[in-house]
Amino acid sequence: MEAIKMAEMWATMGSTLASIMFLWAIIRQYCPVEVRRFFEKYTHRVMGYLYPYIRISFHEFLGERLRRSEAYSAVEAYLSANTSKSAKRLKAEMGKDCSNLVLTMNEYERVTDEFEGVTVWWVSSKVVSPASSMSNYPGQEKRLYKLKFHKKYREVVTGSYLEHVIREGKEIRIRNRQRKLYTNGTGYKWPSYKHSMWSHIVFEHPATFDTLAMEPEKKQEIIEDLLTFSKSKDFYARIGKAWKRGYLLYGPPGTGKSTMIAAMANFLGYDVYDLELTAVKDNTELRKLLIETTSKSIIVIEDIDCSLDFTGKRKKKGEKFSDDENEKLNAEAGRKEAKEEGSSSNKVTLSGLLNFIDGIWSASGGERLIMFTTNYVEKLDPALIRRGRMDKHIQLSYCSFEGFKVLAKNYLKLETHPLFHTIQTLIGEIKITPADVAENLMPKSTVDDAEKCLSRLIEALKEAKEAEAAIIEAEKLKQSASPVKEDGGFCDGDRETAEPENQCQR
């Protein structure tokens, strides 16, 4: 009996649905479009009073140029990290600028999220536009995310929750992105659409602070400084200063300046812009390059003392000129600068570089480190490296015993060895760069063991010590053989010729 009643009920329901569909087909065919739109308009309005939920859509592409929506990308990243564990149907994608496989919700999948006690629902959907009757291709698919929540939580969702989703989604995208190493070159014009003044490759340098040959205290000081900078957006805004920081890395060649930059980039997850100043035509082009750099990046100018021949002259410390001499020097500097600016091969001036570092244009983008490296810090203009431009000066000097232990662990996997005591004594008596130490610790064949590499380093340290002692002895003999006047000056025929300027070394 129950089965008969159930069958009759289903038959009645099917008949009713069929009648409704028939009537709807008749209405669509014979009812004018204006009448149908009128009824649809007021039907949605009535449903709005009765339906307690609100929907927000995030479409993948918006606008005439069909550029991917930043909001859609942020929502996608947020959901992939926060709701992919609860979704049952996922799709795996490799983004254009992403180094990891990203799992996102499949079409029509629904997940739940909670924020400050408010429950919301996300649905991944798509809309298929009808195909043209004149084309054999299927209709275009447009993907979107739909957010659904109760109307009583409108202020919470449209305010703090959506702000939270966008902010966290952008941070997730930055963490997952494929970091890049950029460089500029000669012959670039002002960038047109889809054309940049920078070219890039994937940044894959393996250097980290763990593998950096440096004293632990100094290393920790740099790490804390970087962390403080990366978390100080509100602080910089409060004090009215652009969110950037300058670093000057100086020291002899081979002390690890470039490796330090790579370790900083890996630690913070920043892109690197290697700016070649000799390829920049003038100050205007330098500003254009700055505009194209992004936030969360390191702008590097290596060997800054060799990169530019700045126009104008500055008086050295302790050097005094008369008023007439000063006027003459200023006039000559002005003519030289005007001539260079008027020529076809204009170059970057000191003023242009200073504006690049901390001028008005330097505030564009935010969260950037500007780094100079040099082997000869005394050659640099004081205005270029003063605090406020190069905020932190980091001296990378010769290898210490603490630095050697880091290299021994990296190259030989040694924490201690009987030969360490001999090396500690020798390395404290002479100057040797981390690059030279690393070269001696590098196994040269498959039969080289740790003891052989350490012995090779000891021999190199002894040779360097003997060479240094020979140089000191030669200097003493030279000084004792030089005839000196009573007033302490050299005789006219025995003046030492000026030493040639040091050549720039990388």
What is shown here, in short?
The protein is an alpha/beta fold and about 500 residues long.
Question: What attributes does this structure have?
Answer:
single chain, 506 residues, alpha/beta, Rossmann fold, 7-stranded mixed sheet, 4-stranded antiparallel sheet, 15 strands
Q: Which helices and strands, and how do they pair?
A:
Elements: H1 2-30, H2 33-50, E1 53-59, E2 61-62, E3 67-68, H3 70-82, E4 90-93, E5 102-105, E6 110-115, E7 118-128, E8 141-150, H4 154-176, E9 180-184, E10 198-202, H5 216-230, H6 233-239, E11 244-250, H7 257-268, E12 271-274, H8 283-292, E13 297-301, H9 304-307, H10 323-342, H11 350-358, E14 368-374, H12 382-385, E15 392-395, H13 401-412, H14 420-427, H15 434-441, H16 450-481
Helix pairs in contact: 3-4, 13-15, 14-16
Characterization of the model:
Helix content is 44%, strand content 16%. The chain is an alpha/beta fold and 506 residues long. It folds into three domains: 25-176, no CATH class; 180-395, Rossmann fold; 401-481, no CATH class. Strands 10-9-12-13-14-11-15 form a seven-stranded mixed sheet. Residues 188-194, 311-321, 340-344 and 490-503 have low confidence and may be disordered.
Outline: elongated
For the sheet with most strands, the description reads: 7 strands, mixed
The CATH architecture assignment of the largest domain turns out to be 3-Layer(aba) Sandwich
Number of helices: 16
Domain count, please report it: 3
**CATH homologous superfamily heading of the largest domain:** P-loop containing nucleotide triphosphate hydrolases
How many beta-strand runs?
15
